[in-house]
């Protein structure tokens, strides 16, 4: 047997764990024991060398099927014992000398006997339940007919007494005429009796009436105690019914309706004498069946006790037999463990815990990292919830989100063992992601100074005050600084979107650009640390360096201008500076100048940005061609390593294959254009942080002012209660559910597209170890 697998020692979340491709040759006699050890270890992934064969064509298919059947029988015995309330014996037992063949035969005989007992018991129990229902029908239907006879007798007597009072000469002649007429018009009625589930009785009556157009008579009476249905075996409340009808056509309709409603039908005789005999006969059969069922259950319990006494012994016997087979084989050849060297990419495995696993799943949903590729999951733990919080920033909403997540974390053990719905299970699985999102939302909410859109002076008094009463609650005109700056976050006086100074709006927009440029720079820097990337010096000089220069010559410079403007309090127009940096780079900046030498710095940065484009495009294809030519001249015979997919495939080709310069050049051209255009579009894409934050803030203001404050202004308790209820539902439904989902999806897009496309290929495949622990989790 020659299976190959990969092993994984020490933990490292930034890099996937080290893997080796090995060849493991195990003697056939000890294969089962070795497989057991490897399954407990859980560090080996087997590679199928016979994938073209079906399971039935495998070498050990018959043996595996045989062991699987024995295991199935043991599981069946265990289930039957648990159902009957028995447990396996914990007493120490002496292992009798029995081989696996005899054990297999014995297990088969016991299974057949137990299955036969179960089938006979179910058949007898069904007959017993049918007889109980039949007896109930006989009793209730007998009461129906007895009541009907008494009513008919009393009506006949009343009619006779009335006729006796009105006798005349013509009375006998009329009576004879009526009697002859009645005899000719008599119609024989049929009837059907049975039981119907009480919950379906009303619908049963309506359908009968509609199907027969009212030409039936239905009488129902509830059974006092729940009865066991013979078909389903479940206890349920039922009604006894009698349906009287006329005609074969009506009978067929009634039978079909009874079948559709699960009504059990039983025969019934109008004769009172026969009814009594039937009740006695049914009662006797019920008593006999009860005795037979009790005897069968006693035999079944004895059999299960016997199985329970030997169950653990059989398990031990199988384990000892396997170990003895390995010992008795006395194989002179031990297991052969040999490391193989291959160009095949190993699987990727990051050892995670319950906190980091959800963040790793966010990355893996985009694509599994290649072996030893830099893992974005490390940075996602911080950057993902932070970017979410930038859009969701409100410390009141963050507290609500935190409390909801705390419920899942506190009840973690209980909920993890329960079957949850799809949405609840997804939320529970990402509980620690939501926890981080809520904590960062509280932080950004404190920075924005927003609590359900309301600003508070939490860290001190506002640094600004009105010069006179005319400026209060109007615009920022008239505000003067009367004390030191507000110590943390946005000053309450600048909160909101005043027409003349939308400070918070401007802050969020500029902060989005700063965060976007910082994260894109992080992505480019991480490409430097990729193992395959770092091994190729061409990628460092002609991809990493020009990308850094291009991005920061433009958008890094814009970020610097934003910070300088904040620090100096300048009124310079940054839009004007960036536009005319390209249109008129030699013009004087005038009032838009933020620091000395700014014009010269802009010219240098513009020159570097323009030079970096051909720097990325031209040298690399020509150098690759030169290296290929040198390899053919015998100066080098080592294949060139590269991260680019096209270059990787080219490097793995035979050394005598032609070098497609045009294909390599076009690939590099596409890569350059993609990066240059992507740098612009990705920076603009980060403005969604500003847009979503603004939308969230404005919705909070609308719900607060147009619902809560409006209801408060009516000075009516009922209107106030209604307003509070509407405010709560709007906040939960729109801001805490829909806005959370929206901000989550936008943060996901920023990570997958704007961040990860700078360095992450994500074309690897996961490591799936052979592990008994994982198999048990899947079964659960």
From TrEMBL:
It is a multi-pass membrane protein. InterPro entries: V-ATPase_116kDa_su, V-type_ATPase_116kDa_su_euka. Residues 100-127 form a coiled coil. GO terms for cellular component: vacuolar proton-transporting V-type ATPase, V0 domain. The chain crosses the membrane at residues 386-410, 431-448, 511-529, 541-564, 600-618, 718-738. One of its GO terms (biological process) is vacuolar acidification. Its main location: membrane. It is found in: Membrane. One of its GO terms (molecular function) is proton-transporting ATPase activity, rotational mechanism. Keywords: Coiled coil, Hydrogen ion transport, Ion transport, Membrane, Transmembrane, Transmembrane helix, Transport. Essential component of the vacuolar proton pump (V-ATPase), a multimeric enzyme that catalyzes the translocation of protons across the membranes. Required for assembly and activity of the V-ATPase. Belongs to the V-ATPase 116 kDa subunit family. This is V-type proton ATPase subunit a. It comes from Hibiscus syriacus.
């Amino acid at each position: 047997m020659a299976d190959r697998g990969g092993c994984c020692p020490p933990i490292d979340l930034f890099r996937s764990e080290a893997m080796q491709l090995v060849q493991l040759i195990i003697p056939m006699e000890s294969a089962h024991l070795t497989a057991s050890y490897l399954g407990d270890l859980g560090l080996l992934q087997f590679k199928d060398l016979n994938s073209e064969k079906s399971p039935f064509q495998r070498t050990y298919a018959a043996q595996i099927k045989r062991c699987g059947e024995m295991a199935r029988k043991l599981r069946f015995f265990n289930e039957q014992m648990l159902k009957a309330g028995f447990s396996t014996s914990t007493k120490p037992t002496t292992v009798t000398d029995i081989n696996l063949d005899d054990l297999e035969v014995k297990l088969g005989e016991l299974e057949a006997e137990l299955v036969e007992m179960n089938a006979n018991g179910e058949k007898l129990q069904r007959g017993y339940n049918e007889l109980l229902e039949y007896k109930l029908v006989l009793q209730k239907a007998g009461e129906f007919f007895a009541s009907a006879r008494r009513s008919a007798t009393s009506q006949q007597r009343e009619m006779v007494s009335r006729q006796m009072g009105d006798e005349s000469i013509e009375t006998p002649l009329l009576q004879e005429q009526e009697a002859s007429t009645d005899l000719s018009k008599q119609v024989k009625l049929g009837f059907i009796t049975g039981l119907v589930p009480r919950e379906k009785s009303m619908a049963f009556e309506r359908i009968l009436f509609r199907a027969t157009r009212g030409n039936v008579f239905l009488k129902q009476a509830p059974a006092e105690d729940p009865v066991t249905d013979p078909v389903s075996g479940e206890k349920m409340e039922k009604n006894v019914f009698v349906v009287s009808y006329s005609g074969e056509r009506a009978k067929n309709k009634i039978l079909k309706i009874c079948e559709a409603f699960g009504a059990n039908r039983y025969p019934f005789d109008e004769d009172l004498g026969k009814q009594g005999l039937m009740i006695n006969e049914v009662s006797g059969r019920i008593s006999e069946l009860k005795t037979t069922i009790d005897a069968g259950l006693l035999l079944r319990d004895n059999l299960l006790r016997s199985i329970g006494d030997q169950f653990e012994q059989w398990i031990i016997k199988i384990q000892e037999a396997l170990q003895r087979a390995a010992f008795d084989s006395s194989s002179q050849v031990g297991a052969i463990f040999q490391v193989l060297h291959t160009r095949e990419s190993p699987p990727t495995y990051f050892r995670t815990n319950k906190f980091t696993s959800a963040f790793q799943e966010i990355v893996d949903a985009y694509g599994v990292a290649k072996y030893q590729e830099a893992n974005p999951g490390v940075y996602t733990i911080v950057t993902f919830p932070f970017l979410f919080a930038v859009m969701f920033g409100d410390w009141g909403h963050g507290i609500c989100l935190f409390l909801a997540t705390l419920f899942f974390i506190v009840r973690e053990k209980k909920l993890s063992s329960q079957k949850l719905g799809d949405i609840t299970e997804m939320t529970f699985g990402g509980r620690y992601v939501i926890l981080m999102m809520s904590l960062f939302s509280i932080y950004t909410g404190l920075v924005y100074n927003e609590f359900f859109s309301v600003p508070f002076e939490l860290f001190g008094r506002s640094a600004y005050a009105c010069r006179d009463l005319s400026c209060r609650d109007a615009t920022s005109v008239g505000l003067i600084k009367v004390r030191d700056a507000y110590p943390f976050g946005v000053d309450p006086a600048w909160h909101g979107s005043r027409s003349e100074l939308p400070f918070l709006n401007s802050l969020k927009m500029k902060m989005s650009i700063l965060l976007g440029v910082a994260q894109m720079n992080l992505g480019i820097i991480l490409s430097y640390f990729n193992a395959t990337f770092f091994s190729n010096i061409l990628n460092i000089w002609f991809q990493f360096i020009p990308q850094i220069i291009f991005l920061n010559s433009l958008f890094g410079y814009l970020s610097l201008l934003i910070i300088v403007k904040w620090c100096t309090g300048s009124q310079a127009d940054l839009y004007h500076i960036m536009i005319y940096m390209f249109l008129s780079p030699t013009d004087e900046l005038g009032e838009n100048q933020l620091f000395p030498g700014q014009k010269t710095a802009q010219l240098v940065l513009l020159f570097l940005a323009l030079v970096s484009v051909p720097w990325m495009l031209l040298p690399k294809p020509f150098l690759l061609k030169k290296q290929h030519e040198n390899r053919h001249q015998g100066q080098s015979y080592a294949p060139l390593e590269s991260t680019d997919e096209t270059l990787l495939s080219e490097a793995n080709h035979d050394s005598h294959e032609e070098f497609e310069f045009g294909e390599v050049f076009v690939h590099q051209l596409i890569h350059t254009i993609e990066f240059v255009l992507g740098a612009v579009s990705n920076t603009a894409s980060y403005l969604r942080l500003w847009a979503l934050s603004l939308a969230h803030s404005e919705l909070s203001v609308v719900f607060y002012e147009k619902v809560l404050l409006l209801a408060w202004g009516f000075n009516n308790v009922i209107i106030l209660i209604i307003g509070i209820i509407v405010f709560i539902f709007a906040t939960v439904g729109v801001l805490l559910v829909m806005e959370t989902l929206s901000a989550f999806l936008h943060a996901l897009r920023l990570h997958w597209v704007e961040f990860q496309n700078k360095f992450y290929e994500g074309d690897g495949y996961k490591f799936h170890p052979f592990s008994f622990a994982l198999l048990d989790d899947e079964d659960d």
